[in-house]
Structure formats: structure tokens, C-alpha cells
């Protein structure tokens, strides 16, 4: 059973990666047999992995269609971004109070990675560096439960957060906001760090309209049963 559990965890990570990078898109069917053959495992860990992904909202089980990559409604998307902003604000607040000097130095290095990529055309490369920067702040909050919950919501929103970076000027703006957040954390200004992170994650007004215009319709329309 322990081996199946480890295999299931590995499968969850692999399928999450496929979903958040767009290799698997909303409506794509996740067939147990096909996944079992692809990863060279039995169906038991595949079934466990799909159940885990269903709990996180990344996949859904539909009548007559089986398990598919989930879509999301516009209302749900807005609500999840609100929750994401508050979770990350909490992480930033606690990180400003709890991060050790070595962790802050690493955060500076990760910020420098983002800065080096901001002028490149490849927004996806910047996104990967952006994830590392944010995850360092999650870890710096020294609250493992909060870190796990924040990553869960982040993973669910990853396709949409990735798309945001393709908006003209967004990478440059994101990078500048990172610098402000980092300075607040390094200075131990907890409330300021939280406010800056909340604003960094907020999607409203023109930013929301631009995001909705960029998202493929399949990502936002509820899947037909």
C-alpha cells in the first residue's frame, strides 16, 4: 500500500504539471487504462491520483464521460483569485516576521532570476521563476498548513496566472511588484508586505477584463454533461 501511495503522489505531480502547462486542457479525458500504460503502473495508483486531483478541483467526473480535466466558471475564477490574494497576503505577512536572513538572501537571488528574464519574449520562462519566488515566500511563512493550502489554490489557478503574464507590460509590472514585496519582507514590515502581495495578486477592473479576453473559452465554460 505504501508503494501505491508513493506512486499515486508521483502521478498527481505529473498530471498537475501537464494540466497547469496546458498539455492537458479542460475537457480532455483521463482514461485509467491509458494513464496506467503511459506511466507503466497498475490502475490502483492511477485511481488514487485521479481521486486526489478531483479533491483539488483540477479534474471532474462526468456522467458518460468519465474523468476529465475540469473547467471553471467566470464567477469561480474571480472567487478563487480573491482567496489566492488573501492566502498569499497571509504568507507574506508571516514571512516578514519569520524568515531567516539566509532565506531572505535566497529570496533576493530568486528575485534576481525574475529580473534577468523580464526582458525576454518567453513569458513562460518568467512564470517558472515567478513560481519559485512565490514558493519561497510560502515556505518562509513557517506554517506548513498554510503553505499546502496556498499551493493547492495556486495549482488550480496556474493556467490563468500563466496567461496573465502574456498581457502587454504585465511581466515588467510583476517584476517591479516583486521588488517592493521583497523589500517589505526584508525590512520586517509585515502589514506592508501583506498589502503589497494582495495588490500583486488582485485581478479586477481592466486586468480582469483583459484576462477573460485572453482565456480560451474551453477553460471558462462549464463542461457539458
UniProtKB/TrEMBL annotation:
Gene3D superfamilies in the record: GntR ligand-binding domain-like (1.20.120.530), Winged helix-like DNA-binding domain superfamily/Winged helix DNA-binding domain (1.10.10.10)
Indicate the segments annotated as coiled coil, or none if absent: none
Q: Which Pfam families match?
A: FCD, GntR
Q: Does the keyword Transcription apply?
A: yes
User: Which intervals hold domain HTH gntR-type?
Assistant: 5-72
Query: Which controlled-vocabulary keywords does the entry list?
Result: DNA-binding, Transcription, Transcription regulation
A GO molecular function assigned to this protein is:
DNA binding
State the name under which the record lists this protein.
AsnC family transcriptional regulator
Question: Where does this protein come from, organism-wise?
Answer: Thalassospira mesophila
Amino acid at each position: 500500500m505504501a508503494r501505491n501511495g508513493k506512486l499515486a503522489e508521483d502521478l498527481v505531480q505529473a498530471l498537475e504539471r501537464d494540466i497547469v502547462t496546458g498539455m492537458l486542457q479542460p475537457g480532455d479525458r483521463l482514461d485509467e487504462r491509458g494513464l496506467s500504460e503511459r506511466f507503466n503502473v497498475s490502475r490502483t495508483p492511477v485511481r488514487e491520483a485521479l481521486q486526489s486531483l478531483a479533491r483539488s478541483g483540477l479534474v471532474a467526473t462526468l456522467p458518460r464521460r468519465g474523468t476529465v480535466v475540469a473547467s471553471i466558471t467566470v464567477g469561480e475564477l474571480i472567487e478563487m483569485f480573491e482567496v489566492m490574494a488573501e492566502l498569499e497576503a497571509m504568507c507574506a505577512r508571516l514571512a516578514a516576521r519569520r524568515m531567516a536572513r539566509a532565506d531572505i538572501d535566497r529570496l533576493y537571488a530568486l528575485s534576481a532570476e525574475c529580473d534577468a528574464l523580464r526582458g525576454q519574449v518567453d513569458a513562460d520562462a518568467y512564470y517558472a521563476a515567478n513560481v519559485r519566488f512565490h514558493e519561497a515566500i510560502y515556505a518562509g511563512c513557517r506554517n506548513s498548513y498554510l503553505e499546502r493550502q496556498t499551493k493547492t489554490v495556486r495549482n488550480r489557478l496556474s493556467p490563468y496566472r500563466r496567461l496573465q503574464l502574456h498581457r502587454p507590460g504585465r511581466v515588467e509590472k510583476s517584476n517591479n511588484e516583486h521588488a517592493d514585496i521583497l523589500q517589505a519582507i526584508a525590512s520586517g514590515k509585515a502589514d506592508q508586505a501583506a498589502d503589497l502581495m494582495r495588490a500583486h495578486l488582485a485581478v479586477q477592473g481592466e486586468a480582469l477584463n483583459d484576462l477573460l479576453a485572453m482565456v480560451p473559452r474551453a477553460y471558462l465554460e462549464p463542461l457539458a454533461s
